């Protein structure tokens, strides 16, 4: 009987993988998932020249960080920019973002200083060229038919929103 550590996850596919075309600025990096079953592609900070740093010294400070990466993928998919836990640990919030199939510009990442982790050796360490700052995840996109209606059907939950199901 195999133990959980012996079982390798098998990806479920009901379709063939799509082709992701990409270009990189000189010195930019793009990392593919590191382990079988991983879905996140690492996004790296791109700072020409590579010696420049990004400092987020003020609480609430917001910066847009280029990656030097441009991507092309088929209609029917989207790319999502998602945070890396290592950035959150540093008190840096990576904003979620959606990249549509028709976009051809630089994949950039918005980062906000929300705090400092004083347990780290250098809580205000800058972001440097090549640092992994976010992840890129792909998913199928849905395209609903939208209808404007005079009212919505009732439901058990109704309009009870935030916190309506308890703590």
Basic shape: globular
CATH topology call? Deoxyuridine 5'-Triphosphate Nucleotidohydrolase, Chain A
Major β-sheet annotation:
5 strands, antiparallel
Q: Overall pLDDT, averaged?
A: 88
Helix content bin: under 10%
Q: Give Rg in angstroms.
A: 20 Å
Tell me about this structure.
- By secondary structure, the protein is mainly beta.
- It has one domain (21-139): Distorted Sandwich (Deoxyuridine 5'-Triphosphate Nucleotidohydrolase, Chain A), CATH 2.70.40.10.
- 3% of the residues lie in helices and 31% in strands.
- The protein has one helix and twelve strands; from the N terminus they run E-E-E-E-E-E-E-H-E-E-E-E-E.
- The longest helix is centred in the middle third of the chain and has 5 residues, at 85-89.
- The mean pLDDT is 88.
């Amino acid at each position: 009987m195999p133990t959980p550590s012996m079982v390798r996850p098998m990806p479920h596919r009901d379709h063939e993988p799509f082709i992701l075309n990409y270009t990189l600025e000189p010195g930019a990096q793009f990392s593919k998932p590191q382990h079988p079953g991983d879905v996140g592609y690492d996004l790296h900070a791109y700072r020409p020249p590579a010696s420049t740093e990004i400092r987020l010294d003020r609480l609430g400070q917001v910066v847009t960080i280029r990656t030097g990466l441009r991507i092309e993928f088929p209609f029917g998919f989207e790319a999502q920019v998602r945070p890396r836990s290592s950035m959150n640990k540093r008190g840096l919030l990576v904003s979620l973002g959606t990249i549509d199939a028709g976009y051809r510009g630089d994949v950039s990442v918005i980062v906000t200083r929300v705090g400092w982790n004083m347990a780290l050796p250098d809580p205000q360490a800058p972001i440097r060229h090549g640092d992994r700052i976010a992840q890129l995840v792909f998913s199928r996109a849905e395209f609903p038919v939208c209808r404007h209606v005079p009212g919505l059907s009732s439901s058990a939950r109704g309009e009870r929103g935030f916190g309506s199901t308890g703590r």
